[in-house]
Amino acid sequence: MSALCEPIIIQGGMGVAVSGWQLARAVSLEGQLGVVSGTAIDVVLARRLQLGDPGGHMQRALAEFPYGDMAERILRRYYIAGGKPASRPFRAAGVLPLEPSSEQLELVVAANFIEVFLAGEGHDGLVGVNYLEKIQPPTLASLYGAMLAGVDYVLMGAGIPRFIPGALDRLSRGEAAELPIPVAGATADEGAVVRFVPETFGPGPPPALKRPKFLAIVASATLASMLARKASGRVDGFIVEGPTAGGHNAPPRGEMTLNNRGEPVYGVRDEVDLAAMRSLGLPFWLAGSYGAPEHVAAALRQGAAGVQVGTAFAFCAESGLRDDVKRRVLEMSRRGDVDVLTDPAASPTGFPFKVLQMQGSLAEDAVYAERKRVCDLGFLRQYYRLEDGTLGWRCPAEPEEAYVRKGGDLADTVGRKCVCNALMANVGLAQVRRAGVELPLVTCGNEACHVDSFAGGTDSSYTARDVIARLLSGLDRPQSVATATAPLSAAADLALVAKAVPAVLN
User: Fold this and answer.
1) Tag placement on the chain: N or C end, fewer CB within 10 Å?
2) Per residue of the chain (506 residues), what is the pLDDT tens digit?
3) For residues 307 and 300, what is the distance between their CA atoms, to the nearest angstrom?
4) Where are the alpha helices (DSSP H) in 79-162?
5) CB within 8 A of 336, min separation 6: which ones?
6) 255-279: per-residue pLDDT in tens?
7) Domains of the chain: which residue ranges?
8) What pLDDT digit, counting tens, does each position of 2-57 carry?
9) Burial of 435 by CB count in 10 Å (0-12 exposed, 13-18 middle, 19+ buried)?
10) Could you give the CA distance from residue 308 to residue 291 in angstroms, rounded to a whole number?
11) Which of 243, 322, 332, 451 lies closest to 15, judged by CA?
């Protein structure tokens, strides 16, 4: 798709497997940008195979993976015909180190390939993949797997993804790529790097791959400007995410102030300068409470190429969230009982994290207190330098005594939740423990209070198609829109839409 014809709607890359291939495919089929989440997707693949691969989708995609021997090894290692007994724990894929084993690398590359391949199977719509900058060890291998499947866009936030564009350039040429890793207690010269070498990954010379477009997820025009000027390669656009969006939020600028619920208070300094965004000359999409047709039209009037919407898609039929969770949230929305708390302590990253207050989940203090701390996935861990110069890792959500023994501050453990295991539970992949099964912690944006509007009447569910049709219902021609570089009037944005490609919705 050309730079003058961008999608109006970008479906958010939510959580662990919430924005799975089924959802991304459904959005792409409607002519918008469907996005899969690449977060922890290696563990997701391993667990799906151990559940017997319902529908055979993982095996079908593995049959298309360009390295057949690797695919066979993955199946031998994890696939259980008919699925494991419900009482048996999942076999661990292992916490990914800076220098992973060949088995771990194969799983990461294959898992990302599978998710993108399935999202784009049988059509020529756009498919993107979303990663968190805070999770560095699997990033390069993940990018390579997604690129092997022909991914069109890479989206990344939760940090400053300065080095990703250059990595995309190098991987597309089959060259080795490196990514610096922050290390607590280390000087700039003592930092670590993670490296991926396509030439040694598979047999034969690495293939030339399409370089996907890169969209950085930012919370300020200042960061967008820095990335546009100083990133290691070409930045193709931005997603400007406000503090009402689900998942991780950027912290408020300046000193942290909390309201009477303990939530961070955002003010004028946190408002994005849209004139500055327009001056960059790159397409941008607005995110955070843009899940209504009037908000889409308003974004276009402000010169945005469109909007990114997550929460509305998170609870649709095609999303990866457990069906019982989706039903409960729809019922809560109809009753007006939805409560989303911006928790400054829940995430081990230290970023504020949106948490749906749902009974029986880890959002409840009593439920959280009963969980025995364990850190066996480690995606949000932090590296630190030991006295002998080697690296260790720690997580504020691991057992307190272990964290303190590793040099961490006990105060940093207060209120921290194991987001990794909880997000697996959200999508029906909860680990089984002696003490019971891991429980969910649902993250969503403030717009969850309105998701019942997509279902209409007394319907118990709605589809991605319903979401897109409603979001674009305020425009004359619901389709992709040319990128704007100046604020538009309502009449101008509708005229611009009318000049774009033919409508994609029936």
Assistant:
1) C
2) 333 478 999 999 888 999 999 999 999 999 999 999 999 999 999 999 999 999 999 999 999 999 999 999 999 999 999 999 999 999 998 888 888 999 999 999 999 999 999 999 999 999 999 999 988 899 999 999 999 999 999 999 888 999 999 999 999 999 999 999 888 877 766 778 999 999 999 888 999 999 999 999 999 999 999 999 999 999 999 999 888 777 888 888 888 898 999 888 888 888 889 999 999 999 999 998 888 899 999 999 999 999 999 999 999 999 999 999 999 999 999 999 999 999 999 999 888 889 999 999 999 999 999 999 999 998 999 999 888 888 899 999 999 999 999 999 999 999 999 999 999 999 999 999 988 999 999 998 888 888 998 987 666 789 999 999 999 998 875 444 333 333 333 333 333 333 232 222 22
3) 8
4) 102-120, 139-148
5) 449
6) 889 899 988 888 888 888 999 999 9
7) 9-498
8) 334 789 999 998 889 999 999 999 999 999 999 999 999 999 999 999 999 999 99
9) exposed
10) 8
11) 322
Assigned token pair, 460: 């118990």
Show the DSSP H helices in 406-477 as ranges: 419-426, 452-455, 464-471
Q: Are 363 and 485 in contact (CB under 8 A)?
A: no
| Percent above pLDDT 70 for the chain | 92
Strand partners, 1: none
Partnered with residue 35 across adjacent β-strands are: 128
Give the type of residue at 238. F
Q: How many Å apart are CA 169 and CA 154, to the nearest integer?
A: 12
Structure-token pair, residue 329: 């949230």
For tokens 């967008």, the residue is 224
The Cα angle at residue 320 between residues 245 and 340, in degrees rounded to 5: 30
Q: What are the φ/ψ torsions at residue 494 (nearest 5 degrees)?
A: -70, -35
**Alpha carbon of 199 to those of 10, 165, 496: distances in Å?**
33, 20, 46
Residue type, 56: G
Q: Would you list the DSSP string of 7-65? A: -SEEE---TTTTT-HHHHHHHHHTTSBEEEE-TTHHHHHHHHHHTT-GGGHHHHHHTTS
- CB count within 10 Å of CB 314 equals 31
Nearest to residue 362, comparing CAs of 430, 448, 288? 430
CA distances from 333 to 241, 406, 446, 447 (A): 23, 43, 11, 10
Phi and psi at 205, nearest 5°, equal -65, 145
- At position 409, the amino acid (one-letter code) is D
